[in-house]
Structures are given as C-alpha cells and as structure tokens.
Amino acid sequence: xxxxxxxxxxxxxxxxxxxxxxxxxxxxxxxxxxxxxxxxxxxxxxxxxxxxxxxxxxxxxxxxxxxxxxxx
Length: 72
Fold this sequence. Notes:
72 residues, 6 strands, 15% helix, two-stranded antiparallel sheet, 1 helix
C-alpha cells in the first residue's frame, strides 16, 4: 500500500493526513525530509538532506510552499 499517489511526474500527499517535516539528529546533524502522520505522529522518511538542493527537490516534488517544521 502506497501512502502517496503518483500524479504525472510529481508526487501528491494528503495535507489533511500528513504534515511535511524535517527530522534532525542532535547527535550527528543528519537531516531527513519526510512526513509526520497527523493522527499518530509517526514519521515517514522520504529524502536524506545533504544540502539545500535536496530540500528544494523535496519541495518541488510534493509542491510544498509553506515553511517546513524541524523536529528533533
């Protein structure tokens, strides 16, 4: 079962069910862009972030324009 449906070249997510977030590790500094399930708070990893290009690609892929919250 896929959480996200294909919409042409671009993925779609349901903002009523998922919130885009960046999970940051306090110990290693690693950052991963993904989605937090609103009902359970569960994090679903999508894109490891190694630079600003990765974050911009994540934003473009899902059509995200709002500020993305960081969680630790």
